[in-house]
Amino acid sequence: MRKDEIKKAIISIGKQENTITGIHNYCDRWCERCAFTSRCASFALSEKINLFDAETDLLNKEFWDDYTAMMQATIELLIESMEKFGITADELKELVEESEREVPNAKFVSEAKVLGHKIFKWLQQNSDEFEKLGWNVSDAKMKKNIVFDALDVVNWYCFFIASKIERASSSIGNDDMKSEMNGSAKVALISVERSMTAFTILHEKLTKHEDEILEFLIQLSSIKKTLLASFPDAQTFIRPGLDE
User: Fold this and answer.
1) What number of other Cβ atoms are within 10 A of residue 44's Cβ?
2) Which CATH class is domain 106-230?
3) Would you kindly state where each structural domain of the chain is located, as residue ranges?
4) Any residues with CB less than 8 A from the CB of 208 and at least 6 apart, and which?
5) Residue (of 12, 14, 19) closest to 40 by Cα position
6) Given 71, 75, 104, 239, which residue has the most CB atoms within 10 angstroms?
7) Can you list the residues of the chain whose pLDDT is less than 70?
8) Cα–Cα distance between 119 and 130 in angstroms, integer?
9) How far, CA to CA in Å, does 229 sit from each of 6, 105, 131, 232?
10) Do residues 212 and 129 lie in contact, with contact meaning Cβ atoms separated by under 8 Å?
11) What is the tens place of the pLDDT at every residue in 99-118?
């Protein structure tokens, strides 16, 4: 798909009446489980250009051509918006540099990342055992099995939680980014709670691993407490579409 076609698609999708503005900024990116894909501009665009199809071959030249065209189209639209609102290149550079400064809560973010890697490593180390049970992360039929569904949940969120905590933390102290901060923190909280529910199921069903799973639950509980303390307004934040 050519750059100009992608630009037209982005503009067209953004004007659709049923689109919920900004809904993709505060979701968990799990499109196959989302009830709002028909109202999401991000999902509509990905469907339009088939960029993030599960069957996409990352070694395929067409994929990278489309990806490059999308980046070029996005940059051009960004420049056009900057000109429209009178934002200079220096002002944009200042915003970028500000975002690259040390993130508040850096230790907290690091702890969440470490936990994510521990969970992922645990899933990898025991993948043969889980696959013998019948778990296949790409098989939609697996969602009907409570254990397989729980494994899917912890697999999906293990890295996602830290990324949302980091995003929320990067907005601390910036009054213009309060919605970004509280929205990201809320998504992190929801992801932690879903992971805890999933691990509770696994603790009951996979008794062989109860000690490891209990440790994950303890660490997730600690992350939840820190999130609530760091972002007291996160729980009451209303995410567009998702909480309305």
Assistant:
1) 20
2) mainly alpha
3) 3-99, 106-230
4) none
5) 19
6) 239
7) 1, 50-59, 95-104, 136-144
8) 14
9) 42, 12, 39, 6
10) no
11) 555 566 888 999 999 999 99
